[in-house]
Amino acid sequence: ILFCPFDSDMMKLKSMALACLVIQTSSLVLCTRYSRKQGGERYLISTSVFFGELLKLIISVAVLLYQNNFSAAKVWQLSFGDMSSALKMSLPSFLYSVQSNLLFFALGNLQAAVYQVLYQTKILTTALFFVVMLGKPLSFQQWVALALLASGVVLANRGEMKPQTAAVVVSAVPEDNTFLGFVAVLCACCTSGFAGVYFEKVLKTTDVSLWVRNVQLCFFGSLVAFGVIFWQDAEEVRAAGTLLKGYNTLTYWVIFLQAAGGLVVAVVVKYADNVIKTFASALSIIASTVISYFVFPDTYISIQFAVGAFVAILATFLYSSKTEYVTAQICATSQKDRKGGHNFKTDQTKDAELNKV
């Protein structure tokens, strides 16, 4: 997918992207949940976030080197030649690092299935930031979808476990705090929405490639994540004498999946459309719920949770279906860019006209 030309079979590319997103999202949720529930010494969340950012940076630099005939000087010039432009990525880098730490914390305190449904609230926060920051009005259908999403999230959260077994579950796993996990997910949704809209705004108002922005984003993200380690876990790192405290094979898989997620989404944004992300979100909810039911003993799927999950999935499809036409036009514009004759100001005018649609 990383090097697939835009003019290739789009249906095949979309199917591959869909499969990758579903597998990555479901696997990351389940692996993270399981890794935090294992006995023995726990790994530090802050260090796993740092290594995830570092891995994304290495892969993004490798892609840019491939695209520029392995010229390190050219890659450096493209990425940091204009430092004022590169610094625009420092804010979303900070927010994404905060988001990653919040999500790790949430997964340690929520069932995987509940987490997946709650995290769909990011659609609501993203929509609100779209309206405020980009001035994009939402249709009546989209507002209805957002209301359905909120309802589905509430239903799913209330149907998390059997009322009669709640005390048993809490006593069996004393470190779990469902309320704090819930708050962490909502905060992560806010940072995700703001950072995503800000990132889109920067991409649409500057003529810089997506992979250059990825390098900038991951570079600043790595610095922020490294700072978080010593702000949050300095004493534990000194005591252990290593950043790899509590690491095992599963921990490295979590880091790999976390890095892969950011890169796969970047490829989807570049070559596919929002409908792909809609399918991936919906299918990953179903997949992680079914798998976690058999893997984690504290997972209980009530009728109320099932209804809430269904409503959230329905809302996701309903919200995204309105943007399919606009996204198709943007993809067509991107195809022209690859063939030459790019006029960025003209493209911005076309985007403004499409937004009116």
Description:
The protein is mostly helical and 357 residues long. The chain contains 17 helices and no strands. It is globular and about 60 Å long. The model is unreliable at 1-8, 161-175 and 324-357 (pLDDT under 50).
List its traits.
0% strand, mainly alpha, 357 residues, disordered C terminus
Strand proportion, as a percent range, falls in under 5%
Mean pLDDT: 75
Q: List low-pLDDT spans.
A: 1-8, 161-175, 324-357
Main sheet? none
User: What is the overall number of helices?
Assistant: 17
- Portion of residues in helices? over 70%
Provide the succession of SSEs.
HHHHHHHHHHHHHHHHH
Number of strands: 0
Distance between the termini: 31 Å
| Overall SS class | mainly alpha
Shape: globular
Write a brief structural summary.
The chain has helices spanning about 10-35, 45-65, 70-80, 85, 90-105, 110-120, 120-135, 140-160, 165-170, 180-205, 210-230, 235-240, 250-270, 275-295, 305-320, 325-340, 345-355. It has about 350 residues and is an all-alpha fold.
Can you lay out the helices and strands and say which pair or pack?
Layout (H helix, E strand, L loop, with lengths): L9 H28 L7 H23 L4 H9 L2 H4 L3 H18 L4 H7 L3 H13 L5 H19 L7 H7 L5 H28 L4 H23 L1 H7 L8 H23 L2 H22 L7 H19 L2 H16 L4 H13 L1
Helix pairs in contact: 1-13, 1-14, 2-5, 2-11, 2-13, 3-11, 5-10, 5-11, 6-14, 7-10, 8-15, 14-15, 16-17
